[in-house]
Every structure is written in C-alpha cells, then in structure tokens.
Amino acid sequence: MTTRSNCPNSTAIDAARAVVAAMQDVSDYAPTNPAYSAAALRELVSNLALAEETELRARRALEVAREQTVEAAFRLYNTVQETKVQVMAQYGRNSPLVHAVGLKQKSERKRPARRAPAAQ
Fold this sequence. Notes:
This protein is mainly α. The protein has helices at residues 10-23, 38-91, 96-100.
C-alpha cells in the first residue's frame, strides 16, 4: 500500500459518503468483486471516521504538549533571570560569578564619555 501525502478535499469525501449512503438503498446491487459491496463501502466509511477521530485526538494531544512545552520554557527562562539577580545580590556586581552567569561585570561596562559644553 502506498502512502499519499495529500487527502482528497472535503467536497470529494462528502460526495463519496453520499454515494455510499445511496448504495445502501439499492437492494439488488451485487458486484462481482466483494471489495465494492455495500458492506465493504460501509466499513470504509467507518474506518475513515475512526481515522478522523484518531487524528483529532492526536492534534489535541499535540496542542497540549505544545502548551506544556511553552509553559516549561517560560518557567525556566524566568527562573534563570531571577537566578542572575540573586547571584548579583549575593556576590556583588563585580564578581567573576556575575560574568559566569552571562552578565557583564560592573568593571566591564564602558563609562559614558563627558560631553563638551556646547559652543555659543
């Protein structure tokens, strides 16, 4: 069985379902190949419905997983930011540990240059 990357559009699927529903009313339909029987068509519609439900549950699970990932990322980021503040408070702004957590030490900051008074 080959795997296809795209699905028929919803209009085509609805039309196929309508054909299957119409075939249920035809009492003397007897195909030579049992794969095309009314019962086989009903089973295919049922399989499609189950597959759609499974896909919907998987999408919801993915949404929940993404929300949990985003929440965990924000918790980590915010905690690390607060940790940096705690390191500065505990060890001072010029401590080598401040540099180790990714911040500039006070001594590394460039002092602003004095402006010359404006000539009048």
